[in-house]
From TrEMBL, chain A:
Transmembrane helix is among the record's keywords: yes
Bilayer topology: Multi-pass membrane protein
Pfam families: BPD_transp_1 (PF00528), OppC_N (PF12911)
UniProt keyword annotation of Metal-binding present: no
Domain annotation ABC transmembrane type-1: ranges: 103-294
Organism per entry: Lentzea jiangxiensis
Family: Belongs to the binding-protein-dependent transport system permease family.
Main localization (coarse): membrane
Name used for this protein in its record: Peptide/nickel transport system permease protein
UniProtKB/TrEMBL annotation, chain B:
PANTHER family the record matches: DIPEPTIDE TRANSPORT ATP-BINDING PROTEIN DPPD, OLIGOPEPTIDE TRANSPORT ATP-BINDING PROTEIN APPD
Membrane topology category: Peripheral membrane protein
SMART domains membership: AAA
Alphabetic keyword roster: ATP-binding, Cell membrane, Membrane, Nucleotide-binding, Transport
One Pfam family here: ABC_tran
Official protein name in the record: Peptide/nickel transport system ATP-binding protein
Keyword Cell membrane: yes
Gene Ontology biological-process annotations: peptide transport
Organism: Lentzea jiangxiensis
Molecular function GO labels: ATP binding; ATP hydrolysis activity
Main subcellular location of this protein, as a coarse class: membrane
All copies of domain ABC transporter, residue ranges: 4-255
Length: 307, 332
């Protein structure tokens, strides 16, 4: 009897193993990687906090404290005190609340820029990789020009082109800088797919060109792009912070952003280092989280790295 | 009229600033329905290029194809890209060498089978899945329901090649081209795949062009054999005749280089000297002359003409004469 049960379980297990895709086996490996889990936990907390921040924030991030609430101190920047965990910022607004709400802006900018950059890169890379020939040459020359400029400098230039900086201009500037990275990556792996045996085999079956590109070439070319997008999330957050720091960010400081908070306190850094340290630490931790995830994802999806 | 008539097929690769390279040089052969024709030769003799040219799969740039490939009365080389695409997979099927890399790694087997059915027979997905199951069953894949959902890496090598054959035969093409279908497989699996192909060819009346370097495959499967060297057919005969009495020194050498169980112990194998890279162009000599044990002065001065005698086509100035010690060694 016991034997019968164990046999049945074995068969069930076999049946379940049917249809294990590349993604599924990569996920299996990732689940056991402590580095990936660390990154995933950081990013998980970050996303939850940023989504819930409007309700979690103890104070309104855009309203200064009333003067009678402030514990007397020698200068106008309120120090940490009961009800205001980290004190106030230059304008006397609750610093802890601003940090929390800032995570939301950071997430919007990072994800938005990555999605726009990814979309642009996918379109350009697919065009170049699928059509080849002169389309490929033109797209790749444009990409080369964009890559030859330092990415931050390019982002600044794009952001500075807009008469009125806003959150959207920051997203766009950071996104445009990422497009060539994605485009080149996808184009490279599409080209490798073009000459692969299974694409030749599909051609030999009379499969139409569109189906060859979208069913046979593109899905096989995506894994480096997926990995890159997690890494770009980190870069995008840092670059958006840099733009805000230099005053090219969203001028509306009722909705704080970490880079902007960092830029605002440049003059009081000597006397109130904590005002710069907290947003900096947040940026570093979040960027680290995305990078840890991206790197382990790269290892898991790399077919040469199979164990 | 034969199902496939290849006449004077020539493929020239021409790169800027380089000498044109004749990969295939005036190859002609016929394939009848239900017949299996072998194209045999070493790597680089032009057998794969011949098959790709028939399928219209050679890159357009820097490639010049001439001659005719008549399939069922139409010259395939004159068809537009679109017309050719409609024929591939429907009228002409192809099985490739490496079954793992010829399957799309991120698409389950089932979808790869139904893709052809949807494309050429206009079947809806559900109906195509039922047909796909029957096809996998037909090529001897056990538990087809489960296999349809699996990915190529979960199948064994033999099973992958069976799946590829199922895909190639999904639309019942009248002609199947198999480019070294057993090279990447174990010997036991090779035998299974070959007998499967033999069976299917007989059942469906499919004409089969078998491209291989393996004379064992030829002996087991082919009716007629074309031996290619340097892009030209150097000897063509029915299988029994070719094996019993190889006349071209190259064919003779190929047969002599196979280890034999009944040879005396300690006897050395007789390799063919040199390599394909030693080719000299056919223009004013025999391309095989530098490697040929029988080479005469005339072999280096004159292109041997094609001679068709007693059902055997031969291109040689100084063929192996049956009855000589060298010939008997092979026959024994």
């Amino acid at each position: 009897m016991a034997l019968g049960v164990s046999k049945k379980e074995k068969i069930d297990g076999l049946a379940e193993s049917a249809g294990v895709s590349l993604a599924a086996s990569a996920w299996k490996r990732l689940r056991r990687s402590p580095v990936f889990l660390t990154g995933a936990v950081i990013i998980g907390i970050f996303i939850v906090l940023s989504l819930l921040s409007p309700w979690l924030a103890p104070q309104d991030p855009s309203v200064p404290m009333l003067i009678d609430q402030v514990v007397k101190a020698r200068n106008e920047i309120p120090p940490p005190q009961p009800g205001h965990l980290l004190g106030g910022d230059l304008q006397g607004r609750d610093f802890f609340s601003r940090l929390l709400v800032g995570s939301q802006q950071t997430l919007i900018v990072g994800v938005g820029a990555t999605i726009i950059g990814l979309t642009g890169g996918l379109i350009l890379g697919t065009l170049a990789g699928a059509l080849g020939g002169w389309v490929d040459s033109i797209v790749m020359r444009v990409v080369d020009v964009m890559l030859s400029l330092p990415s931050l400098l390019l982002a600044f230039s794009i952001a500075a082109m807009f008469a009125r900086p806003s959150q959207f201009t920051v997203i766009l500037a950071v996104a445009i800088v990422q497009i060539p990275v994605f485009a080149r990556l996808l184009r490279g792996s599409m080209l490798a797919q073009r000459h692969s045996d299974h694409v030749l085999a599909a051609t030999a079956l009379g499969v139409k060109k569109g189906a060859i590109v979208f069913r046979h070439m593109l899905p096989n070319s995506l894994s480096p792009v997926i990995v890159q997008s997690t890494l770009v999330l980190a870069t995008a957050i840092i670059e958006a912070a840099a733009l805000s720091f230099l005053g090219l960010g969203n001028p509306d400081d009722r909705l704080p952003e970490w880079g902007q908070m960092l830029g605002d306190v440049q003059n009081v850094f000597d006397t109130h280092p904590h005002l710069a340290a907290w947003p900096a630490i947040c940026i570093i931790i979040v960027a680290l989280g995305f990078t840890l995830m991206g790197e382990t994802l790269r290892e898991a999806l790399d077919p040469k790295n199979r164990r | 009229m034969a199902l496939l008539e290849v006449r004077d097929l020539t493929v020239v690769f021409q790169r800027k600033g380089e000498e044109p390279f004749h990969a295939v040089d005036g190859v002609s052969f016929d394939v009848e329905p239900g017949q299996t024709v072998g194209l045999v030769g070493e790597s680089g003799c032009g057998k794969s290029v011949t098959s790709l040219a028939i399928m219209g799969l050679l890159p357009k740039r820097a490639t010049k194809i001439s001659g005719t490939v008549t399939y069922d009365g139409t010259d395939l080389l004159k068809l537009s890209d679109r017309e050719m695409r409609d024929r591939r997979g429907r009228d002409l099927g192809m099985v490739f060498q490496d079954p793992l890399s010829s399957l799309n790694p991120v698409v389950p087997i089932g979808l790869q089978v139904t893709e052809v059915l949807e494309r050429h027979r206009g079947m809806p997905r559900k109906e195509a899945m039922i047909e796909a199951k029957e096809l996998l069953d037909k090529v001897g894949i056990p538990d087809p329901d489960r296999r349809l959902k699996e990915y190529p890496h979960q199948l064994s090598g033999g099973m992958r090649q069976r799946a590829l054959i199922a895909i190639a035969l999904a639309c019942r093409p009248k002609l199947l081209i198999a480019d070294e279908p057993t090279t990447a497989l174990d010997v036991t699996i090779q035998a299974q795949i070959l007998s499967l192909m033999k069976e299917l060819v007989q059942d469906l009346g499919t004409a089969l062009v078998m491209i291989t370097h393996d004379l064992g495959v030829v002996a087991g499967l082919c009716d007629e054999v074309n031996v290619l060297y340097g892009g030209k057919v150097v000897e063509k005969a029915m299988r029994h005749k070719l094996f019993a009495e190889p006349r071209h020194p190259y064919t003779h050498g190929l047969l002599a280089s196979i280890p034999r169980l009944d040879a005396p112990r300690g006897e050395k194998l007789t390799p063919i000297r040199g390599s394909v890279a030693d080719n000299i162009p056919w223009t004013s000599a025999c391309a095989f002359a530098p490697r040929c044990p029988n080479a005469l002065d005339v072999c280096r001065a004159e292109t041997p003409a094609e001679v068709n005698k007693l059902g055997r086509l031969l291109r040689c100035h100084n063929p192996v004469v049956p009855g000589t010690p060298a010939a008997e060694e092979v026959q024994a």
